[in-house]
Specification:
The complex is a heterodimer. By secondary structure, chain A is mainly beta. Helices cover about 0% and strands about 50% of the residues of chain B. Chain B has no helices and 11 strands. In chain B, the strands form 2 sheets. In chain B, strands 2, 4, 5, 6, 9, 10 and 11 form a 7-stranded mixed sheet that branches. A 4-stranded antiparallel sheet of chain B has the order 1-3-8-7, with no helix packed on it. In chain B, strand 9 and strand 10 form a beta hairpin. Classes of the chains: A mainly beta, B mainly beta. At the A-B interface, strand 5, strand 9 and strand 10 of A face strand 4, strand 5 and strand 10 of B.
């Protein structure tokens, strides 16, 4: 059973557009929500993360929006660039374990 | 400072063969993890360790064993490989605090025929 549900599976965005990836969870014990970026042939790398006492976190063009009551969080990539083309994973942490979403393949068209 | 390294990078096994994947980190991290990544499944935790000499099961531990004899190393063993274990395996480490950033290795692509 997937503890963190991620959508969409794939996303195509024009250069300069906004990319939005959504995740949802049920387990209220989760207390840390990171997003990872993975390029082909590489391991995932932390992009940005948030804790549930904050509703939004922004780092450059990347923003996490967190809705604790709805148990949902999302990644927004502003002014998307071709170099952002990668697979993105959301994750949630509790009890020494990270639980990952199934990933979103983002393609940014020049 | 190499971060997290994994050996080997690629391996092909026949059904029933055994092998060990080695993960090493030079960041003095307490926590280490082994994941497998399959298309459409994301990353799934196999086993993890919260310190030298300790190991625990993750979501998909069956068919795998692990050992953490030294703080910097975390070994993943397959005693009798099966085609269902064809996957990309990632090791990760993190510091000893709640939800600390995980650093991932480059992965090992394993094919079992």
């Amino acid at each position: 059973q997937q503890q963190v549900k991620q959508s969409p599976q794939s996303l195509i965005v024009q250069k300069g557009g906004i990319s939005i990836i959504n995740c949802a969870y049920e387990n209220t014990a989760f207390d840390y929500f990171p997003w990872y970026q993975q390029f082909p042939g590489k391991g995932p790398a932390l992009l940005i993360a948030i804790r549930p006492d904050v509703s939004e976190k922004k780092e450059g063009r990347f923003t996490i929006s967190f809705n604790k009551s709805a148990k949902q969080f999302s990644l927004h990539i502003m002014d998307s660039q071709p170099g952002d083309s990668a697979t993105y994973f959301c994750a949630a942490f509790t009890g020494n374990q990270f639980y990952f979403g199934t990933g979103t393949s983002l393609t940014v068209i020049p | 400072n190499a971060g997290v390294t994994q050996t080997p990078k690629f391996r092909v096994l026949k059904t029933g063969q055994s092998m060990t994947l080695l993960c090493a980190q030079d960041m003095n991290h307490e926590y280490m993890y082994w994941y497998r990544q399959d298309p459409g499944m994301g990353l799934r935790l196999i086993h993890y360790s919260v310190g030298e000499g300790t190991t625990a099961k993750g979501e998909v531990p069956d068919g795998y064993n692990v050992s953490r004899l030294k703080k910097q190393n975390f070994l993943l063993g397959l005693e009798s490989a099966a085609p269902s274990q064809t996957s990309v395996y990632f090791c990760a480490s993190s510091a000893l605090r709640q939800g600390a950033e995980q650093y991932f290795g480059p992965g090992t692509r394993l094919t079992v025929t």
